[in-house]
Every structure is written in structure tokens, then in C-alpha cells.
Amino acid sequence: MHLRRGMRRERIRNFSIIAHIDHGKSTLADQLLMRTKTVDDRDMQAQFLDGMDLERERGITIKLNQARMKYTASDGLTYALNLIDTPGHVDFSYEVSRSLAACEGCLLVVDASQGVEAQTLANVYIALENELEIIPVLNKIDLPGADPDRVRREVEEVVGLDCSDAIMASAKQGIGIDEILEEVVRRVPPPPDNRHKPLRALIFDSYYDPYKGVIVYFRVVDGQMVPGDVVRLMNTGKEYQVDEVGVLAPKQVPVDALYAGEVGYLAASIKAVADARVGDTITLKKGGTAEALDGYQEVQPMVFCGLFPTDADQFSDLREALGRLQLNDAALQYEPEVSSAMGFGFRCGFLGLLHMEIVQERLEREYDLDLITTAPTVVYKCLRAGGEEMNVDNPCNLPDKHDNLQEPYCRMEIITPKDFVGPIMELAQQRRGDFIDMTYLTETRTTLVYDLPLAEVVTDFFDEMKSRSRGYASMEYHITGYRKNDLVRLDIKINGETADPLASIVHRDNSYRVGRALVKRLKELIPRQQFKIPIQAAIGSRVIASESISALRKDVLAKCYGGDVSRKKKLLKKQAKGKKRMKSLGRVDVPQEAFMAVLSLGSDDGD
Ligand SMILES: Nc1nc2c(ncn2[C@@H]2O[C@H](COP(=O)(O)OP(=O)(O)OP(=O)(O)O)[C@@H](O)[C@H]2O)c(=O)[nH]1
């Protein structure tokens, strides 16, 4: 029927690489691509340059990637090895689980100088749930501090995985690469024979291409797909005619059909990635199936903040930029927000803090916008006076009369060298954590488990944990649900006016401490002006802390001696630059840092 019969099923291997951040996943993937001559050195450079700037600068993998490699194994046969990349950060853990669901096996990469970390474990659990064949790889054996024997024992004890034949590798020096390719062929099972069933394909990534529309990456689980097919996305219910199907080698190469077990892409003039979400099942409109693949989940933003242009004229540019980013980012939400203090802007929802930072940076860099960002907040739930349930993603919207105020909680696992257990437990307790469990991972390292309010985690928890453990502890968390707590809204008044964007929701027990610390910090951050500025923290009508900023007495220019015009100009220019990132609240110029002040108060500040 079709010219191409697809790669013989028995010679297909679908696998991915899982690792804790920085253990060498990307370096190893590059080595595999080069060793199989899927890309040559020059292309590697080019491909590198094409990648997202932010991704590279931050040294983290944000988007999934995939490539098909052709590899002739020691048995003389040529195999198609489909490498499916997984993102490395908790914000994107749902994407990890979907990309692993598209595989039969994975390489578990562990840094032989570090050992098992929190994300190693989290990813292994996902791999086990998906019943994948796991091939352990001890990487960075070239490092003087590498101790593969210790790490091998650790993986055996902690993960319960036989490591007697773990591969010793150095992705940097190209050691162990052939062995890895051989083991993928030998140990990862070929996909099951499902060609004759009705089409079902699992979407594990998609991105927006301005020419072809959304490019969808998927694994054909059952059946086959050819150009011209009219497909239906089972969760959105949307239907499209397929323009093109192909494989990633690693560039897009069109083919005339994709069969069960194969991994590839399609283009079908889909307008936004939200229409072809990760985890959705593709089937045929006619002769398809009614049974979607398991595990689809609508991802909900967990963290919200306000984005306001410093210059009101940039509002429509901001709207356009958010629209463009959303074409490529199904998890980004935004809706217009009007604040009496800030003017017109948007309330935006993100998967987590990293996702939020990435979007902010892209808006500023790629779209040249100057933004004021309000402090991130989680989504609270409460009952309004009438008994109606309400989601509160902006503290200033919490009704004065409400009941049953609840906040999201997460289960947090921290792995730390045992010397730092004390300081980390102290941190978790200060952040209202409930201790759940402590186990000895190995002789020298400990796993701590806490239930924590998400609001306490999205501030500076990660940074604090790192600094208290000199960088050695790692963490991993997932949302578990909502809990009722004694929470109150803390309002800030500047010059007698309530500054909506500075409001926060805090636990009543902490409200005095946070209120005091916050007004003190704002006093430092807000520049003096021509008049005295009172700053107050209040709960309802009760003021719980106050400070004031004294009036500016001298003209700044008075410092310059009469004739020195250039210096005067320079000073004025400097001031103008500083002014850019300010908003006027109650006649007072408030700089960007003040909007974030509530995040950096720490646990023991303010007294
Ligand atoms: N010495 C040594 N360094 C390595 C080796 N493999 C990777 N590295 C280095 O370790 C660092 C992290 O490597 P990456 O490949 O970016 O790690 P990753 O796991 O992909 O990190 P994310 O993309 O953040 O998940 C880089 O500086 C690499 O050069 C190795 O075998 N030996």
C-alpha cells in the first residue's frame, strides 16, 4: 500500500535518559548523536546555537527533544534508536512522565562523584511506574573525586537496581559510549506488535513553527498514520487533516507513513500548542478508537503573579508578546488585570517559579518590554460569605468576609549529607513544615521527608536549602492537596494608601514578624522623596507595624559644583535609568525590588 514499510519493529529501540540536574545527560546525548554520526561536529555546533538561549545559559533542559539514530550493532544489524529527551526540572515533571511513557527503556545516569540525588529518585520512580528497562550508567568516572564503587552500592541500596553490570562512562571524554549503545540494543525491548490495531499515538512534546503551525512529537502506540489522515485529539476533541508526518534525524525528514512502535512528528496546521497538549492521544476520526491512552492530565498553573508594563503605552505590546509565547507554551495562562495602583497589566499563571522566571526573561529580552512583576503567590481556596467556593490567585482579591481559607501543600523529599540535617530540619520547621520521615540513604547521607505549604516553597526555599548545605542537598516535591490553615491577608499602606500589589497572605502566627520585617525592608528599598512617607503593615483595620521614610532635604544636584555640566547630566541620566523600574503608589515611586521584598525576608529576619 505504502512505499515505506517502516523500520522493522524488532530493530526499533525507544529510550530516554534520566538524571539529576548536572549529572551529564545533555553531554551524553550529544556523544550518542556524534558516535552514531547522526550529527557531525559542525552540525552539533549549529544545533547548539539554534537551541533556546535561556536553556543553554541556565544549563538546564526545558524543552523535550528527540532524535532517531541509526546504529549498526556488533551483531551486524542496523537498528533505529529513538532517543527521547526529558526535561530536568520539577516544574516540568508531568512532561517527564509523558516522555518516559513513550519508551521501553532508559539510561539512568548518575554522577560517580556525587551519587543518587533527589531527582534521580523521582525520575526512577516514574521509570518504574512505566515498567521501563533501566540501564545504570555511572558518569564522570574521569573526575579525581569519582568513586564508582560507592555510587554503585548506593544505587543498588537506594534504587534497588542490580548494578553489577553498570556502565562506567565519561560523557566528556567519550568513554563507555559504545557500550551504552550496545546495551540499549541488547536490553531495551523492541516495541510490541500493534500495527493492526486502530491508531493511537501519544503526544510527548509540541512546539509552534511559524510556517507549518504546531509540530507535534508523538509515539505511535497502535496502528499507523499517513499524510491525509483526518485525526482527532481525544482530550481536546479537535480534528485536523495531517499535512506531513516524518522522523527526526535529528532534522525533520518527511516519510510516507509512521507505524506502531515508531516515534515521529506531524504537521497539520494546528494553531497553538494548547490544541495539541503533551499527554493527549491522537486517533483517527474514522475507524479510530474510543479509548484514550492512560495518564492524561490537564496541567494547572500553581504560581501566579502580576505583570505590568512600567510604561502604560506598552500594554498592547505586552498583550501581543504574551499571546505569542502562549502559542508555544500551553501551561502559560494570562488574563488582563486592572489595579488602581499599577494600571493595566496581566495576571499570569505558571507551573512553578522557574517557568515564571523564564517567561519574564523572554518578555524582557525577546520583546524588549520593561515590566514590574509583583511577588508570586500560590492559589488559595476559600468560601465567600454566600458559601460559594472561590480561587484566590491574587491576595488583594481575598474577600474581607470569607470562611475555610485553604492553601496548597506539597510533599518534599530532601537528600542531604548527614552533617546538614540539623540546619535543614530547622529551615523546614520555620517554613511551617510537618515532619514525615527521616531515613538513612547511606552511611553518610539522609533523606528527609516533609509536608510543606507550597507558599513557603515558592519563595526562597531552594536557595536557603542550598546555602545551609553548602550546595550539597537536593530536593524534589509534588503537590498533594489543600489544607485549611489560620491565614490572614497582610496589607501594606504607603503614604496612607493601601498598596494592592504588595498585599500577601500569611499564617497568623507569622503575621507580626513578616509585617515588621516587610515595612523595614520597604523603608530601605523605597527612595526618599520630597515629603515624609509613612509605611504601615495592617491586618484588616489594625496596624501591626509601621516605619517612615524621612523627607529628602537636599537637591541631589546640589552635590555637583556649579559649572560641571557633564557630571550633572550623568547624574540625571543615572536617576532616569533608576526610575525606569518604578511605579507610583500613593504618590510615591516604588522600585521593582520592593514588589518582591516579601520573598526575601528569610525565616529569622525582622526582630
Ligand atoms: N568531568 C566530567 N564532566 C562532565 C561529564 N559529563 C558531563 N560533565 C559536565 O557536567 C556538567 C553538566 O553536564 P550536562 O550534560 O549539562 O548535565 P545535564 O544533566 O544535561 O544537566 P541539565 O541539562 O541541567 O539537566 C557540564 O559542565 C559538563 O561538561 C563527564 O563525564 N566528566
TrEMBL record:
Q: Which InterPro entries match?
A: EF-4 (IPR006297), EFG_III/V (IPR035647), EFG_V-like (IPR000640), EFTu-like_2 (IPR004161), G_TR_CS (IPR031157), GUFP (IPR027518), LepA_C_sf (IPR038363), LepA_CTD (IPR013842)
Q: What is catalyzed by this enzyme?
A: GTP + H2O = GDP + phosphate + H(+)
**Role, per record:** Promotes chloroplast protein synthesis. May act as a fidelity factor of the translation reaction, by catalyzing a one-codon backward translocation of tRNAs on improperly translocated ribosomes.
Protein EC: 3.6.5.n1
* Chief site of localization: plastid
| MF (Gene Ontology) | GTP binding; GTPase activity; ribosome binding
Source organism of the structure: Coccomyxa subellipsoidea (strain C-169) (Green microalga)
Query: What's a single GO CC term here?
Result: chloroplast
Location(s), subcellular: Plastid, Chloroplast
Superkingdom in the source lineage:
Eukaryota
GO terms, biological process: positive regulation of translation; translation
Which family would the database say this protein is a member of?
Answer: Belongs to the TRAFAC class translation factor GTPase superfamily. Classic translation factor GTPase family. LepA subfamily.
Record protein name field: Translation factor GUF1 homolog, chloroplastic
The UniProt record lists the Tr-type G domain at: 10-192
* Pfam families on file: EFG_C, GTP_EFTU, GTP_EFTU_D2, LepA_C
Q: Which UniProt keywords apply?
A: Chloroplast, GTP-binding, Hydrolase, Nucleotide-binding, Plastid, Protein biosynthesis
Residues where GTP binds? 19-26, 85-89, 139-142
